[in-house]
TrEMBL record:
GO biological process: interstrand cross-link repair; nucleotide-excision repair
The keyword Zinc is assigned to this record: no
Record carries keyword Plastid: no
MF terms in GO: 3'-5' DNA helicase activity; ATP binding; nucleic acid binding
Residues of the Helicase ATP-binding domain: 184-429
Gene3D superfamilies found in the cross-reference section: P-loop containing nucleotide triphosphate hydrolases
UniProt keyword terms in alphabetical order: ATP-binding, Helicase, Hydrolase, Nucleotide-binding
Domain Helicase C-terminal: 526-670
InterPro entries given in the database record: DEAD/DEAH_box_helicase_dom, Helicase_ATP-bd, Helicase_C-like, P-loop_NTPase
The protein's name: DEAD/DEAH box helicase
Pfam family, one: Helicase_C
Length: 726
């Protein structure tokens, strides 16, 4: 995908299509516009002349490329009997605005608006800082690396080479923001850092590179074998997604460190971490069988297979047989890992556990660096609890200090929030948008965000709308697969699991009733929003139409809509994640599981049912348009349900402006640390963590004599707790 194609696609949408759809209204980015023309098209001659005026050197070549890749949709028969075109994203926008059950009926929506905004994101042209290649920014970073490793040139060179190989495998380098932040962190004596940057801007690499430097310094320079790193992710799906990058980085690092005869090890400790591994199938759900998938993580070596459990200390790729013998896979070996990934709920539980052969208080007393991704999640009472857990972590620590790193795309007032969360008023904040706005950071790349605000007609069900939208998006993916094109992926966020399942079952029922056969009738004009057949290959449209009329598309469409939420079995979640990573054109019905940090670069369409707060909406819509596979373009639909609170919110100017601009400035994140219940909880956790560190039975797990089964044991345990408190 060339940068010219991306720029041309963005220009076609913003300068050609948007004014036409809005009825030639004056187009201002970040302003809501009514959708008044949903039967438009752009003739090829107009596309060509437009691109010529925009100084694109070969307009016809760009048009053909966009058509061949499915981003320009050709409408076979337009009003003046010549082919017309639309961008894929705007075509879906106008058809989504007119969804209805029966052709000729009014749409399910009461009102439909759209807005256009652009977000700065680094692209390949921005990421040109290659380690070990002479460049002023690299030279500055190299000096910081050497300083960090106490002028040990050999270790600094090994570290730089690891970074170079990791980035080379991804066909990229560092951008100015990444190089700047990593340089500052490596040369700073601060204890707390916050990286605040948009989705897709490389935050993960920054804190992983920093974590790697810390481990290398402890083990190879200071000969300290105890210090550990804790990576805390608020969702299991995010932990699994990030595990791929961690394993990829450590695989390269361990190859480079072979001369030092030391391996950096990694493990995940949460509720899905098995107790052990067995050669045969076991009824004990705490055990996994050799060969079972390791959380659906893809192989970073070949990129084709999935990793599987091989032993308590290793996983293996089921496709290329590459062995990763630095992955600790069961509870007792994860406790030995240099880097442990977990979630905040597991962290609290682990702090209470005195188990000798598991991640417990004694293991956590060795944490010297804790990283919290998606830090904006910890607000209100949950933020107060996390702040309390950090106090407990420091209280039981055997280290001089516990360094903290927070990462997020959506913290409105970072300093205020991070100070309250960390308790460190000298924290250092790195803010991407501030660097860009201040002219200190030059970024060439842009992501185009098309926002849609749809309000449901009270006569119709918002859930039924979601079902019919799923039919549209699933059929789009199916049609593109038939054409041999990359299949668009979509995410539909529904907060309530019951309603989500209702949407899935409704989708299946709609297929059983024949959907989308009525949308494929050849008498429909392709400009009619009810028409879907224009997505199909021209030479097989008639055949597919006939199959649809016979009800034969059911089996091909039924599995294209999938569920992702906490009640989906782990194995099923892993398979869905693998299908998404493999590029399959799925419509994922998700609660908040896919909201944070998960990278599926084929997602170009996001529908959020309900008017969540702007921070949540920015995160969710930010799941789309993350790379060239989507032309760095996302259509984010916000569906206002026919509820008084949501209808009133439509008239809240600050809310609507925040959504239209994808900006959260002016909002605040609150942390409730002084809540009496949070304080009492903190006192109990602290006292139990101290008992656990001493090796006393805390009954937090079977390995620490839990659960408590009689009143005598309970009374005795309460006395121990009171003894610690008093």
């Amino acid at each position: 995908m060339s940068e010219d194609e991306v720029k041309a696609y963005h220009a076609i949408i913003t300068e050609l299509e948007a004014p036409v759809i809005a009825g030639e209204q004056n187009i201002q980015e970040g302003e809501w516009l009514l959708i008044v023309n949903h039967e438009y098209y752009i003739p090829r001659d107009r596309l060509r002349s437009f691109l010529e005026k925009k100084n694109f050197s070969n307009p016809d070549k760009i048009i053909d490329a966009l058509v061949n890749k499915g981003f320009l949709v050709m409408l076979p028969c337009s009003k003046d009997n010549c082919p017309g075109f639309r961008s894929l994203h705007m075509d879906i926008l106008v058809r989504s605005s007119q969804i209805t059950t029966l052709h000729g009926n009014p749409p399910y929506l009461l009102s439909y608006k759209f807005a256009i905004t652009r977000l700065k994101v680094p692209i390949k042209e921005d990421r040109m800082i290659i380690p070990s290649v002479n460049n002023p920014l690299w030279n500055e970073l190299q000096s910081a690396i050497l300083y960090f490793f106490n002028n040990n040139r050999r270790l600094a060179d090994v570290y730089a080479n690891i970074l170079k190989k990791y980035l080379s495998r991804r066909g990229t380098g560092l951008d100015g923001f990444q190089a700047y932040v990593l340089r500052k962190m490596l040369s700073s004596d601060k204890s707390t850092y916050a990286i605040v940057a948009p989705t897709g801007s490389g935050k993960t690499e920054i804190y992983l590179f920093y974590s790697l430097a810390m481990v290398m310094k402890w083990r190879l320079l200071e000969n300290d074998r105890r210090k550990k790193i804790l990576l805390v992710y608020p969702r299991k799906a995010l932990t699994v997604d990030q595990a791929y990058r961690i394993i990829e980085l450590l695989s390269i690092a361990n190859d480079e460190l072979a001369h030092a005869k030391y391996q950096i090890t990694f493990g995940i400790r949460d509720g899905d971490t098995p107790l052990g591994i067995t050669a045969n199938q076991s009824r004990d759900t705490r055990l996994v069988k050799i060969g079972e998938l390791f959380r659906g993580v893809a192989c970073p070596h070949c990129g084709k297979g999935l990793l599987a459990y091989e032993s308590i200390n290793s996983v293996i790729c089921k496709y290329c047989n590459k062995k990763f013998d630095f992955i600790k896979t069961v509870r007792r070996t994860v406790a030995q890992a240099d880097i442990v990934a977990t979630n905040p709920w597991a962290l609290e539980t682990r702090l209470l556990d005195s188990a000798a052969e598991d991640v417990g208080a004694r293991t956590l007393s060795d944490i010297a660096l804790a990283v919290f991704d998606e830090a904006h999640e910890y607000t209100g009472v949950s933020g107060g609890i996390l702040a309390t857990l950090l106090d407990v972590l420091r209280g039981i620590s055997d280290q001089k200090d516990v360094n903290l790193v927070f990462s997020s795309a959506t913290i409105p007032d970072p300093r205020d929030f991070i100070v309250k969360l960390s308790g460190d008023d000298s924290c250092e904040i790195f803010n991407f948008n501030n660097e860009v706005a201040g002219g200190r950071l030059q970024i060439k790349g842009e992501r185009l965000v098309i926002l849609a605000h749809f309000m449901m007609n009270p006569r119709y069900s918002w859930n039924t709308y979601c079902q019919l939208w799923s039919v549209l998006m699933a059929f789009l993916s199916y049609a593109y697969k038939l054409r041999g094109l990359p299949q668009p992926q979509s995410i539909l966020f529904i907060n309530n699991i019951k309603e989500l399942r209702r949407a899935k079952s409704g989708y299946i029922e709609n297929l059983r009733l024949g959907e989308p056969k009525d949308h494929l009738i050849d008498s429909l004009d392709p400009l009619d929003p009810y028409c879907y057949y224009h997505y199909l290959p021209i030479n097989s449209a008639k055949q597919i139409r006939e199959r649809a009329l016979r009800g034969e598309l059911f089996n091909e469409l039924k599995d294209l809509v999938v569920e992702i939420h906490s009640e989906v079995p782990r194995e099923s979640r892993e398979k869905v994640a693998a299908r998404l990573r493999g590029g399959e054109g799925l419509v994922a019905l998700s609660t908040s599981s896919l909201e944070l940090g998960v990278d599926y670069d084929g997602v170009g369409f996001v529908l959020n049912s309900g008017l969540d707060n702007p921070i949540t909406l920015v995160q969710r819509i930010g799941r789309g348009g993350r790379g060239d596979k989507t032309m760095r373009t996302v259509l984010g639909i916000v569906l206002a349900r026919a509820l008084p609170t949501e209808m009133l919110k439509t008239y809240e100017e600050s809310f609507m402006k925040a959504v239209a601009t994808m900006s959260i400035s002016g909002y605040k994140l609150f942390i409730t640390k002084d809540n009496p219940q949070v304080i009492k909880r903190g006192i109990l956790i602290e006292s139990m963590a101290k008992l656990a560190k001493k090796g006393k039975d805390t009954y937090a797990s079977g390995a620490s004599k839990g659960p408590i089964r009689d009143s005598e044991t309970l009374q005795s345990f309460i006395k121990y707790i009171l003894g610690e408190i008093l």
